[in-house]
Amino acid sequence: MTVQDSATQRRWITANHGTALAALGVLGFSFTFPATAWALDGFGPWTATGLRGVLAALAAGACLAAGRVPVPERRHWPGLLTVAGGCVIGFPLLTTLALRTSSTAHSAVVIGVLPLATAAIAVALTGERPSRRFWSGAVAGAVTVIGFTLLQSHGRPTVADVYLFGALLVCAAGYAEGGRLSRHMPGWQVIAWGVLAALPVTAATTVLAWPSEPVHLTGRAVTGLVYIAAVSQFGGFVVWYRGMAAIGVTRASQLQLAQPLVTLLWSVLLMDEQVSPVTPFTALVVLLCIAVTQRARS
Description:
By secondary structure, the protein is an all-alpha fold. The chain has one domain. Helices cover 77% and strands 0% of the residues. It has helices spanning 3-30, 32-39, 45-66, 77-98, 104-110, 114-126, 132-152, 159-181, 187-197, 199-209, 219-247, 249-253, 259-271, 279-295. 51% of the residues are buried.
């Protein structure tokens, strides 16, 4: 085997490993909306958001302490604060508020625009230059989910949609910054420091909201809260950011086009929700768009 062949094989292995990690992150995130809906059965939206961040920070702090990880350099903190503001505070709060009046199925499809927003921000931050073929697949996927959303809501955006649109913007910034930082430090440390940076806000939110919002500690509510804290806020990001570092932010972001489809499946199986008859067609188009973005060259 030549040196060139060996290098090509290593790149192929790295790319496939990175894709698998990013896909695992998407799978973990796909249950976030159903788990949040479960949490709202027993906690108010502000309490659920605060507790989610506090519990994730406790787990992250324990991991950082066990690994004796040094505090990141000053130049990394603006990016870490973006991760904290977008992925730990903004996205959880806005989506939780949306889920008070929106179904998990509808919310999942609205967030289907997130991959395009993430790719656009990543281009500005990281200097990645995806091909026209990539952008064709990304835009087609976003247009598909937007069209599906408008069909579901009869062309009239709701207040929940406004929350969700804000959520996808701040989350896209957090994803892109986290993916960029994962080239300089392990992905698990990026999200760990992110949730710790947000701890003053999430702890204050919990303390202020708990007495004013009703709390009913049911098994379903506690299960949902534990999931969004352990997986949606921490564990899922560990593999997600690591996958981004391996295959690039723009390419990894498009794997999330599949996330609404998996969430729709959860909503049918576990939430007894009904989906539109055009869902299978939407799913097929989205999967084709993912295939296009993953085969496109940067």
